[in-house]
Design brief:
This protein has 390 residues and is an alpha/beta fold. It is built from 16 helices and 13 strands. The chain has a 7-stranded mixed β-sheet, sandwiched between helices. Strand 5, helix 7 and strand 6 form a beta-alpha-beta unit. Helix 2 packs antiparallel against helix 3. The chain is globular and about 65 Å long. The model has no long low-confidence stretch (mean pLDDT 96).
Length: 390
């Protein structure tokens, strides 16, 4: 079994927050250092003659892992950059609506509002239930929010504050029947769920490698449908746009070169897939099952010990689980401040690293805990012990 030392994590902490920034194994960081040393040994040779082939190889291996065609796959710094990229190229007109959910990641909510304001469009929020008990009520909540003005929807595969695994394939299909395209924010999905992105049928899918796949920070991606690739472009237009290619060649040229940047997080993704996948007999399927079981154990343990309210049923849970923070633990501060104070106290006083978050149109604060291969019974009990001090 993997241990904390495989990641280089501080042994004095209980790390239960892969859902925010992840943690990279020592072997993955060693590969990134090797690539950086190669880059710095002759930067001109690296960028002018080597990086294109290196990116091509990494793209093939990464795209295969998440079940998408490499022709529409592009490395980006993170999922938020992917959602921004996909949204900015969607043709919106004055009066159109972007549909979000009130469980969505706040950075993407703000991006949608920014883009809508510049186009004379607006943002509408579907209200999802807490706690959520089945997929049908989630589908219905999204569909009930669609209006005649809705042109595009952004739906999380796994919601950030509330840890709900949404039925995105069904939601995408439901919305397509109403002539609404869907962008899926899959920030938390790679490594946590078995992915076949192309089968989802979304207009575009954006995600991260630095969470459960444990790649270096600054490694995300988007997978763009053929429809989006007809009009879409990266946020930064650089030399790649002038290489003369057409179709999918132009798409790859534009996204592979948007200016000088360190590509080693992208190039390290195949190593992260291999290294983490080799930490448990049975590879990634066994890892996903094991982490799911640990997440459910944490769910049961905190419900039993403190009577907490989980945000969703077990079948809507992946490798992380969220709870509504009870009033006795949050004090009188407004929600965002209360979340920050709660998370900071656990970190500073007890060395327990969790996430605490809020969501749109709600005064709730959520405690979110994540499971990975280094999460053992001792880690869970450190959390329980710390919470008894609140």
């Amino acid at each position: 079994m993997a241990t904390m030392s495989d990641w280089g994590l501080d042994p004095k902490i209980a790390f239960l927050n892969h859902g925010s920034f992840g943690a990279s194994p020592v072997k993955v960081l060693a590969e990134q250092r090797r690539l950086r040393d190669r880059m710095e040994a002759n930067p001109v040779q690296f960028f002018a003659f080597e990086v294109t082939e290196l990116l091509s190889d990494a793209r093939l291996r990464a795209a295969d892992f998440v079940g998408t065609a490499p022709n529409g796959f592009a490395f980006l710094a993170n999922a938020t950059a992917g959602v921004n990229t996909l949204l900015r190229s969607v043709p919106l007109e004055a009066g159109d609506e972007i549909l979000m959910t009130d469980h969505g990641y706040e950075a993407c909510n703000l991006a949608a509002e920014h883009i809508a304001a510049r186009r004379g469009a607006s943002v509408r929020f579907a209200r999802l239930p807490v706690p959520a008990t089945d997929t049908q009520e989630l589908r219905t909540s999204v569909l009930d929010a669609v209006t005649a003005k809705t042109r595009i929807a952004v739906v999380d595969h796994i919601t950030s504050p509330t840890s709900l695994v949404l039925p995105v394939e069904e939601i995408v299909s439901d919305l397509a029947a109403l002539d609404v395209g869907t962008i899926v924010d899959g920030a938390h999905a790679p490594g946590q769920l078995a992915l076949e992105i192309d089968a989802i049928g979304a207009l575009g899918y954006a995600a991260n490698w630095h969470k459960w796949v444990c790649a270096p920070k600054g490694a995300g991606f988007l997978s763009a449908s053929r429809e989006w690739r007809q009009y879409g472009s990266p946020l930064v237009i650089s030399h790649g746009a002038g290489y003369g290619g057409t179709g999918d060649v132009r798409f790859r040229d534009m996204f592979d070169w948007t200016g000088t940047a360190d590509p080693t997080p992208f190039l390290s993704v195949p190593t992260a897939i291999e290294v983490v996948g080799g930490m448990l007999d049975g590879g990634w399927p066994a890892i996903r099952d094991r982490n799911h079981d640990v997440a459910l154990h944490m769910r049961d343990r905190l419900v039993e010990e403190f009577g907490l309210t989980p945000t969703g049923s077990p079948d809507l849970t992946g490798s992380m689980v969220s709870f509504v923070l009870p009033a006795r633990w949050r004090g009188s501060s407004e929600p965002r401040q209360a979340a920050g104070e709660f998370q900071r106290r656990l970190n500073d006083e007890f060395g327990v690293v969790v996430a605490a978050a809020t969501r749109r149109h709600s005064d709730d604060v959520f405690l979110r805990v994540s499971a990975h291969l280094h999460t053992g019974e001792d880690t869970v009990e450190r959390l329980v012990s710390a919470l008894h001090s609140f």
